[in-house]
């Protein structure tokens, strides 16, 4: 078996099945034909062209765009054409620090193939022999996505209007009851990216990664019910499960592989896939450069 | 000023100015028209097609290819058509762990736009306030490439037939007089890649990175004359010089930016270029996927 297959499983996007989604002439995402047909019912908000789906050029301000899109999404959710909305707003933009083009409900980001951001933290300890142990979440059986699968220690989607670090602190408290002093020691260490076709559209995700060196007496405890348990695993066991099984939620192997590469647990001489892993974990969003 | 400009400066490759270089039907590099004209003098070794330059298909073994290419390069170097050879062999392959297609003198790798590998190590210490200090090399005035420029602590091209780690240990001794016990604590932490047009052709480089936590009483000392001095610099000073100046050898900013991202010295909330830096440092070789 292979580590790379997890990256392949998260990078299933084939642009042939999509039309670019343009806002004010800038490609910011990708729309499926079935979604385009739904949007065609709202010609005051979306303009369909042969080669693209455009937010209507008459909507020139972020506020006007957000309001018009919210109306469309509410109507589509009400008649069951799309999944129920989650009342959490995502910012539509081409880079996190770029200008917000509009905001929309988190549920709808994949419908437009918009870039979405999240945070993940790996909690780690050293063994006396120098090896690593990692805290691994075990997702609850009632989760809509990946029930009962293994998970990172802390993770969550990135709402508009919050910094990555503040989002991590919030999720650390909610998901693991970690005290704020420990959570604030989290070290940012890069990003991973992937573009994955999902039931509802294209997930073009960037996960901002943090490492947290946790003390021996730290034990995560779920407060929001997202996890049924947490397991402290040797890195070697994590890698064996990644290599040979599918125990983890689809995107978590990428988080853990990046950790193992950055900390020398997977090395360049002994890992034939090393180079492909490093470049595969850090792809650009497919709308980039248009 | 910007950090990204250093990545842009190392990614100047424009395929419009090149023809793919094929070995046994596989694209492994890129050749300039001027180089193709030189190679056209050797039709038993190279076959020029309209859209590609091919190693002659009659050369089917790595040994036969290496011998034929060596003869061509010796003749071209002798008449001054290419730079003098260095008598250090590089392996032509599409990934480090893939099969060797042939070997050729290191000088000629850019002529064919072949992938080339190297190692770099960053030597670091923590300050009492938690900040980082980095050992920075200062290149000798007589270096052919980047004389007097600032450098990483340890770096070197990757010869065929050596592991990355063994090459690092060799370079650590030669370049810094580091004792082997300390050098062996080096932690591998990923790769950076770039594709840069140079005077002689395309440098498609992958640098395998290591971090070395050095003790307070370590002081690097050049044994091979590559460096005139070493400076222990606060990470903040390194970043200020990267942002505002061009004090470093062209590819060293990429090594140091990757270090600063992995260690949280550059963070995702405060660095507008963060995402572009992470993806920009980890591009695939332009022949990949052909």
From TrEMBL, chains A, B:
Residues 116-258 form the Nudix hydrolase domain. CDD domains: NUDIX_Tnr3_like. It comes from the Bacteria. It holds the Pfam family DUF4743. GO terms for molecular function: pyrophosphatase activity. This is Nudix hydrolase domain-containing protein.
């Amino acid at each position: 078996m292979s580590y790379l297959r997890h990256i392949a499983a998260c990078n299933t996007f084939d642009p042939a099945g999509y039309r670019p989604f343009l806002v004010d002439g800038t490609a910011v995402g990708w729309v499926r034909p079935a979604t385009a047909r739904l949007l065609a019912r709202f010609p005051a908000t979306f303009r369909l062209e042969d080669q693209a789906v455009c937010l209507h050029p008459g909507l020139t301000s972020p506020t006007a765009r957000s309001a018009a899109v919210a109306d469309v999404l509410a109507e589509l959710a009400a008649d069951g054409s799309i999944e129920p909305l989650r009342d959490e707003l995502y910012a539509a933009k081409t880079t996190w620090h770029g200008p917000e083009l509009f905001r929309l409900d988190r549920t709808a980001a994949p419908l437009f193939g918009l870039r979405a951001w999240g945070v993940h933290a790996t909690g780690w300890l050293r063994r006396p022999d120098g090896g690593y142990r990692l805290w691994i979440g075990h997702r609850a059986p009632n989760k809509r996505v990946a029930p009962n699968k293994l998970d990172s220690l802390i993770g969550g989607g990135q709402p508009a209007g919050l910094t990555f670090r503040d989002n991590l602190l919030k999720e650390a408290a909610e998901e693991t009851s970690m005290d704020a002093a420990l959570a604030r020691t989290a070290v940012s260490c890069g990003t991973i990216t992937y573009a994955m076709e999902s039931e509802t559209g294209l997930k073009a995700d960037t996960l901002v990664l943090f490492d947290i060196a946790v003390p021996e007496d730290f034990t995560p405890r779920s407060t929001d019910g997202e996890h049924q348990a947490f397991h402290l695993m040797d890195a070697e066991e994590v890698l064996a499960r990644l290599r040979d099984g599918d125990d983890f939620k689809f995107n978590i192997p990428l988080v853990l592989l990046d950790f193992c590469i950055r900390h020398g647990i997977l090395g360049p001489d002994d890992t034939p896939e090393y180079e492909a892993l490093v470049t595969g974990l850090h792809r650009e969003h497919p709308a980039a450069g248009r």
